[in-house]
Structure formats: C-alpha cells, structure tokens
Specification:
The structure holds 2 protein chains of 2 kinds.
Chain A: H1 14-22, E1 26-30, E2 36-37, E3 52-56, E4 60-69, E5 82-88, E6 93-97, E7 113-121, E8 124-131
Antiparallel strand pairs in A: 1-2, 1-3, 4-5, 4-7, 5-6, 7-8
Chain B: E1 9-16, H1 28-43, E2 52-55, H2 60-67, E3 73-75, H3 83-97, E4 102-110, H4 127-131, H5 140-143, H6 148-154, H7 159-173, H8 187-192, E5 195-198, E6 200-201, E7 210-219, E8 233-242, H9 257-270, E9 280-282, H10 288-296, H11 305-310, H12 338-350, E10 362-369, E11 374-381
Parallel strand pairs in B: 2-3, 2-4, 9-10
Antiparallel strand pairs in B: 1-7, 1-8, 4-7, 5-6, 8-11, 10-11
Classes of the chains: A mainly beta, B alpha/beta.
Chain lengths: 141, 385
C-alpha cells in the first residue's frame, strides 16, 4: 500500500483516528443544538457553538451513492473499488469504501443498510463500511 | 458611474492557443503566454496597456513577469476550472472601481503532457488527505462522479441519461474541427464504451488535453479605443458561490446549492430572465454536470433535465443550444475548462463559432470548480442593454 493513502491526524481530528484504531467510529456532537457533525472541527458546523464533545456512534449507515472505480491509480489497486457516500444513522455523510461484497451494481443497492468496519492504511486505521447483512464487523474483506 | 454589470464592462479580446490537444513541446507557462499574446492581438491592445492581470494555476505575478507586465491589480483566485469565470467578475468589479483599466485573464495548462507543469500534491493531513484519499478517491473520474447515481435514482433516470448528454454534444463537436472527439455516437455506443468508474463510461468523461485561452476586458466606453471594440461582448450579470471542498460534504447529494446561488445572482444582476437566454455553456467535466446545472440554474424543473436533453432541445436546431463546441466531453479539457466555456460563448455571440447558431444575443456560462466546491455564473451579450 502506498504511503499517500495513509491519513495524518491533526490536533482536531486525532480523537477520530484514535477511535478508528480502537475499532470504534467516533464523531462529534454539539451540546448546544444536539446535532452530530463530520468532519471534526473545534466548533459545531451548524450553530457555531464550541460546546461540542466526542461520542461513539452506532456505526449503522445507509448507502447514499457510489462509483465503482475501474481505473485505480497506481498504489490504490488493493483497495475496494467501491468509492461510496454513506449517511450515518446520526445524520452526517462521509466518503468511504464498501467492503465485504463483490463490486457489482447488483450487490450495491442505494439505501441498503451498512455497518462500519475498519481497514489499515499504513500505520493508521480507517473506517470502511460493509452491507449490514454480511455478518459481524469483525470480519475482513 | 461605471457598474460591473449591465453592459458597462466589455470583453474586447478573446483567443485560445494556436493548437489544443496533445502538445508535449510547449510548457504550461508558454501556453499562458501564447494565449495572452493571441488575445491581446485580437483586442488590438498593446501589452503596455495592460494594467490588470488574473490567472489560476501559476501565481499571477509569475505570468505577469513572464509576459513582462507590471500590473497594478492582480487576482489569483484559484477555485479549479471555474476560476476564470470568477476572474471575469472580479475584473469587472476592479475596472468599475477604477483599480484597473485593461485586464488580461490567462489560462494555460499542460494537463495531458505535464510539460512544465506544477506538482499537484495534497498533504496527508489536509481534509482531502484524511477523509477522501485513503479510499482511493483521487482521480476526478472516481470522485466528482460519486453523487451521480443518487441524482439519477431519485429522478427515475439512469445511465442512458448520461449517454444522451454525450450524444447531443457530439452533434456539436462533429461540426467543430478543433474538437478532440468529433465522431457522432448513439446512446448505446456511449453505454458500451469502456467503463471508467461505474456508471461513467469513457465517453461520459472529459477529454484530457493541453492548451490555453485568454481574455481582455475594459470599460465599454473605452472599447472603441481598441480594434477589438468592434466585436465587444458585454457582461450583463454574474454571480459566484461555494459549498464543500469535500464531495462527501455537499449539503445535498442531488443538487448543488452553489449553482442555485451563483446563477440567481447572475440573473438578478443582469435583469434578464431564463426566457431571455439564447445559448448555454455548462461546464461538463463529466456528463452528470449539465444535468445538475439545467435543473439547479432553473432552465428546467426538478427531474426534467434528462428528457430535455434526450428530446433534442440542446442540440443543433434545438431551442436552447448547449455546449456548442462539444464541451469538455468532446472539445478540450486541460484540467480547468472554464476558460474554454467562456471562449465559445464569445465566439457564438460574435458570430465566429465553428458550429455557429444564428441570431444569438445572449449566453449563460455556468462554471464548476474543485468538484462540487465552487460555482460561478456569467450572463454575456453582444449588445448593451
């Protein structure tokens, strides 16, 4: 795997990456307006309150949209070719890979339920998602 | 008092590089320079008369120095392929305010050959480096395209609607000798082309080329001082807006609110309505973008974009000709296509286009940049209101 695929934490995002390394999906929630948000910031992206905290979320999501990449750039061939937009049960959307399923449109139905899983990228761990029906989040692709 | 809108500012020079396409023997900065000199010649403006410069890619001061210019106003707004639309708008404001009299806007990019190109690196601690790159979301064809399936799904549309955009635009490019892809195609042929990133086949993705273009702007009441003033094209209105620099952080997957905001401002400042627009240049790095734009800019209702294109309204002879050079999908796409969208609007309004539409007076140019991050809109006309 290529080095450029390895994310580097900033002070603001470190709890997200520490959570991923522990196998949990951790994002921020605003205590002023109650909303979850992503990506990490020192303030709520909706109401700009700084009264925010980290919370572990369910890891449940739905498939919003995706592409199946037939032309991976050099160094990315080992990744799932399914580059997807998922919406977490708590509201925020994030980009990810869909794993644990053959990359065929027939297996990737929009709105299908997903559950979080984790994959290594160099010395970091990133959240990915798999169809909720394909077993535990402990498995690997 | 001069306004930035309403036709008080004119484009008096517009030109592209001598050639477009695969040009490994000319560096990026020289593509800027060649386009600039061609546009100045087109305008009848001497380099010494230029006192404002805007560009994206290299710094404005790099292009200025390369050309031997010392402008008193420089704009380096860099929001991907839409940058040059913003430069027109910013230059108009600067000229109206008296910060510059004659502004040169340049684009040059060795997007195909990489000759003398700048390294394009995204650090692993950047937002993209943390939240997109680890998933292989690097190339535009596998990233800019991610929202498209949802857009189509929610409207009862499918990949055939993407293919129909290509079919329509090839009718234009087939009449355009400088276009890279000129073969007429059917929807079935487009759908059967090699898959790049499902649901996008090769023909639904832009060409990748080398080239450049440049514009010269001044006050309309000064246009007659220059030879290019006889073919002046006027800025009636403009707008710009932004949204997420990460595709995943669009407010809504199925519409781009920045298109809605910037186009609404362009209409409001121009005083025109949709019915007044004769011609569209809608930035098409990929085939879903004209569909988003037709709906978000308001030329058709929600879910009507696919049928509008399929029924031929944007083709030669249609009531709203769109992307009449063939677009980024067929004409050229250096990486920042916006300059070429403006160039074709100006050619059409001057009556000098390869696939000329008769009787045009207005054109609406809609740009997009850095995937779904930036939007800019221009309303241009060949007569002052």
């Amino acid at each position: 795997m290529s080095d450029f695929l390895t994310p580097k934490a900033t002070p603001e995002t470190a709890p997200f990456w520490a959570g991923a390394a522990e196998g949990v999906l951790r994002i921020q929630q605003c205590d002023a307006c109650g909303r979850h948000y992503f990506y990490p910031r020192r303030f709520c992206r909706y109401c700009h309150s700084t009264d925010v905290r980290w919370t572990t979320v369910s890891g449940r999501a739905r498939l919003d949209s995706y592409t199946i990449n037939h032309r991976p750039l050099r160094g990315t061939e080992s990744l799932s070719p399914v580059i997807a937009l998922v919406q977490l049960e708590e509201g925020p959307r994030m980009l990810t890979n869909i794993v644990g399923v053959e990359p065929d449109p027939a297996n990737l139905v929009l709105d299908m339920p997903l559950t979080v899983d984790f994959e290594p990228r160099g010395d970091m761990t990133v959240p990915v998602f798999r169809p909720a029906s394909t077993g535990s989040a402990e498995g690997t692709r | 008092m001069t306004s930035m809108h309403g036709g008080d500012i004119a484009v008096i020079g517009a030109a592209e590089t001598d050639e477009l396409g695969v040009l490994p023997d000319i560096s990026m900065i020289e593509l800027h320079a060649q386009a600039a000199l061609n546009a100045l010649r087109d305008a009848g403006v001497a380099p010494a008369d230029v006192d404002g410069l805007a560009t994206a890619g290299p710094l404005g001061i790099e292009v200025a120095h390369h050309l031997g210019l010392t402008p008193r106003w420089v704009d380096g707004t860099s929001v991907g392929g839409s940058s040059f639309l913003l430069h027109v708008r910013h230059a108009a404001a600067a000229i109206a305010a008296g910060a510059a009299d004659v502004v040169l806007i340049t684009h040059g990019e060795s997007g195909r050959s990489g000759t003398g190109a700048r390294a394009y690196a995204r650090g692993p601690a950047s937002l993209t480096g943390q939240f997109e790159v680890p998933y292989g979301a690097l190339a535009p064809y596998s990233t800019f395209t991610v929202p498209a399936l949802r857009f189509l799904h929610d409207r009862g549309m499918d990949a055939t609607d993407l293919a129909e955009v290509v079919v329509a635009q090839r009718e234009w490019s087939s009449r355009t000798p400088r276009a890279m892809r000129r073969e007429l195609v059917t929807a079935d042929q487009v759908l059967a082309a090699p898959m790049v990133a499902y649901p996008f086949t090769k023909d639904m993705c832009c060409v990748v080329t080398d080239g450049g273009g440049a514009l010269v702007l001044t006050r309309s009441d000064r246009a007659a001082d220059f030879a290019g003033g006889e073919r002046a094209i006027y800025l009636l209105g403009s707008g710009e807006s932004n949204e997420a620099t990460l595709v995943s952080q669009m407010e809504e997957t199925t519409r781009f609110r920045a298109f809605q905001r910037s186009s609404a401002e362009a209409f409001a400042t121009s005083g025109l309505t949709h019915a007044d627009i004769d011609h569209l240049m809608f930035y098409d790095a990929f085939a879903h973008l004209p569909l988003y734009m037709l709906e978000d800019v308001g030329f058709v209702g929600h879910g009507e974009s696919g049928a509008f294109v399929r029924e031929g309204h944007t083709r030669p002879g249609g009531r709203l000709p769109m992307n009449t050079n063939g677009g980024g999908l067929a004409y050229t796409h250096t990486g920042m296509y916006g300059m070429f969208a403006i160039q074709e609007a100006i050619r059409q309004l001057r009556g000098e286009a390869a696939a000329q539409v008769p009787g045009l007076t207005t054109s609406f140019v809609q740009g997009v940049g850095m995937f779904f991050a930036a939007s800019a809109s221009l309303v241009l006309a060949n007569r002052r209101p």
